[in-house]
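pinned: reference chain
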Amino acid sequence: MATQAPRHSYAQRASSLARDRRHTRKLSTGCPLLDASLGGGLDARGITEIAGAAGVGKTQLVLQLMLQVQLPVEYGGLGGGAILLHSAPEQATTKRLRQLADAFSVRHSRLGAEPNRLLDHVTMGKVHSAEMLAEMLSRHLPQILATSRVRLLVVDSFGALFRAVDERGAALERSSQLIAHAHRLKQLSDDYDIAVVVTNEATDKPIEQIAAAAGDIAAPSLQSLSLVSCNRPSVTVSPIEAKACCTSGKMTLPALGLSWSSCINTRLFLTRREVYAPTPLARTAFQPLSSGACQRLPSPLRDAGAQAYASALSRVAHDAARWHEVPPLELTLDAGCRQTRVARTLHVLFSPRLPSGSCDFEILQEGVRGVDDGTRA
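pinned: its structure tokens
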């Protein structure tokens, strides 16, 4: 006679999962405002994608996460080191990571954080292709993860590694590789208790026709937008994606297509736009820099015009980047001598536990910081 399975086997399994802190832990971004928009931080299990166009701040954010993960759990970390697999120039990445580590150690000095110790717990590896990444995930990483306390794996940029495959026009090959890579990443996350964060590029899709009701794209009655572009199949996006990604008559969407979208657990999308600063530059003799310092601008004559202002501001921006070695000063002047700046926003496009939402942020010398709604320009 067959043995009957215990009646409460599934309930016990569900309750044990609920008690397992590995499934409920969060990795803080290091900023309370960003954490609030992410329900406490990034999931410590599964794949989180951070997508966006070049220069929007993806690498800045993941470098910050690689330091944050080293903090104890009670301080928003995961109590372990980080591995970065990247395709960018190593010198620039290392220099910026060192800069962040210096600022991070000051903020967390009471916990014994020191720049050299922080960097010692970050392992960096260069990958040049999707095939090389597959080799790393299958052979080398399991050996490292089995013998060290690593809690975060970052791939920057995942989308760039598959660009060559996409250019060959091998859609089926790329789709198969994406699914295989996602499966391996999730397996590593489960087997070794690590968070996985990958960055992805963005692609522009011209909109020729929107087969949906006219009006506000964020309207609750609008379920989806079907976008038809030249010689390409239609692309269906949700209202939150349309609101975050639709600008200037085009859609800027995360790369790699639907196959990859179905493989990841959480998708965050970073955007940037120019906004007017509240005070014209002509009203002040001092210009704040990204580092928090101030540089005195020459007092312009009333008839100098916008060109003189732009020239002065360009010199300050150049000196700021050279002196402080931070991202270029993102302040410009329009034709009316009005000061503008770059505003960045983090959007939650989809997540198994989070509603759609967004939070403005800025990149400072000490790291990525959220911007409160009350301070928006």
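why pinned: The chain has three domains: 23-201+255-273+343-375, 205-247, 278-337. DSSP finds twelve helices and 20 strands in the chain.
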